[in-house]
Design brief:
This protein is α+β, with helices and mostly antiparallel strands. The chain has five helices and 13 strands.
Length: 208
């Protein structure tokens, strides 16, 4: 693996290196094929004396980038024992949160495995268009034809009014998973939302 991608989380310019991760995963998908599974391995911490460990927000962002780019699994890596004083106490907060969002009652895991399928990975199929290239998005469909859009703002700063245009999107409410009470409205095959820095959103879309 390219050294710059394996050390993505240890640099100050995390958003630039998150974009590099997306580029490397796109290259992997081109080699493996769109339907071949792979597992993303985020490196939480390696040399605590020299390299900064990922924050919880960064580790969640890196996981979502992997899912959006076609990964079907996440394997976390760290080279220190949890009891080592060099390890931050919140080191596992990000993986714990992502595990809940992957395997919890409303989790994403079922969308990542057959018979569910990815119908448009980062717009490659021309079904999803996003107004901001820094916001990555992939569309998944379950066995009952229900569609879910998984997105991530890859920037270290927030961005407002991001518009998603989706072929076949019906008018109606868009439910945002993992964000209690958050509901948007789709109209004319599109809807918009705001993003905080490195924030993912997961949208359950209305039927056509």
């Amino acid at each position: 693996a390219n050294k710059s991608s394996t050390c993505i989380s240890k640099h100050a310019y995390f958003d630039r290196l998150l974009a590099l991760q997306a580029e490397r995963l796109t290259e992997m998908r081109a080699v493996l094929g769109r339907d071949k599974p792979y597992v993303l391995v985020p490196e939480l911490i390696q040399d605590a004396g020299k390299l900064k460990p990922m924050t919880p927000v960064q580790s969640v962002a890196e996981c979502y980038m992997g899912i959006i780019q076609g990964a079907r699994g996440i394997l976390f890596f760290r080279n220190y024992h949890p009891a080592d004083p060099a390890c931050p106490r919140n080191l596992w907060d990000g993986p714990k949160r992502f595990s809940r969002e992957l395997f919890g009652p409303d989790g994403l895991a079922k969308l990542l495995l057959p018979p569910s399928k990815a119908v448009d990975i980062v717009g490659e199929a021309g079904i999803v268009k996003c107004s901001n290239p820094a916001v990555h998005a992939s569309l998944f469909e379950d066995t009952q034809g229900r569609r879910t859009l998984v997105t991530l703002n890859s920037l270290n700063n927030g961005t407002k009014g991001v518009c998603f245009e989706i072929v076949g999107l019906g008018n109606g409410p868009v439910r945002t998973r993992f964000e209690a009470g958050q509901m948007l409205m789709a109209k004319g095959s599109a809807f918009s939302d705001d993003f905080d820095a490195l924030q993912p959103h997961v949208y359950d879309l209305p039927s056509p």
